Amino acid sequence: MTDETQNNAETHAADTPVEADYSAETLEAARVLFARPATFMMGAAKIEQLPAADLPEVTFAGRSNVGKSSLINALVGQNHLARASNEPGRTREVNFFVLDEKLRLVDLPGYGWAKASKAEVKKFQNLGRDYLRGRPNLKRAYLLIDARHGLKAVDNEPMDALDVAAVSYQIVLTKADKIKPHELKAVIEKTQAQIRKRPAAHPVVLATSSEKGHGIPELRAEIMTTCAVAP
Ligand SMILES: Nc1nc2c(ncn2[C@@H]2O[C@H](COP(=O)(O)OP(=O)(O)OP(=O)(O)O)[C@@H](O)[C@H]2O)c(=O)[nH]1
Ligand SMILES: [Mg+2]
Fold this sequence. Notes:
The protein is α/β, with parallel strands linked by helices. Helix content is 37%, strand content 18%.
């Protein structure tokens, strides 16, 4: 560990409970990459409509309203690229966003949402599941969990499916601005303990706030590294 990364780790430990430890160079490269143009490519309503698997992809999954679309917007620094809303079930297609023609960010429909008709919910949830299982260029799924609530029973099904399909996934806590730093630290530790035995889960749980920007530089670095792209 260099002095610089040591300092980064100490600053994080003191200020914010972000557990990821990246060098200043990696964080800067990720900032530059995510400042490049990001565009909406397409929304797929059916599995047959998915675009060719010709660029590395990462995807954002999680309960409805957890903040998937908001997190994509925070990563690319655009408020309205992905449609975010207070109304649960906003995202009903698998939406593809291209960053700098180098990688894709994929916004999935949320699960655990009771208000749509059962048939409709099943339709867009099956689509999300099929995407997660069968995408050869999917480098990692980020499973978003509300920092105020931690893992719930409804999150077990996607984690089981990802473990069985051996799709690498990482838990990202959202809305970290809504709780106190010591509460955030406790939920990170608890969540890390809960996923320890899950074979496809990344052991580090990240914490983010799309609203305040907490953890966003680290998640950019994580995605850049996972997709093996450079700015
Ligand atoms: N305070 C705070 N609010 C947030 C944050 N991220 C998202 N929200 C709010 O949470 C609500 C839902 O956010 P979305 O990004 O639309 O959630 P989603 O997971 O895409 O929802 P679906 O598309 O319905 O699955 C919106 O009102 C956001 O403004 C955050 O980091 N902090
Ligand atoms: Mg959404």
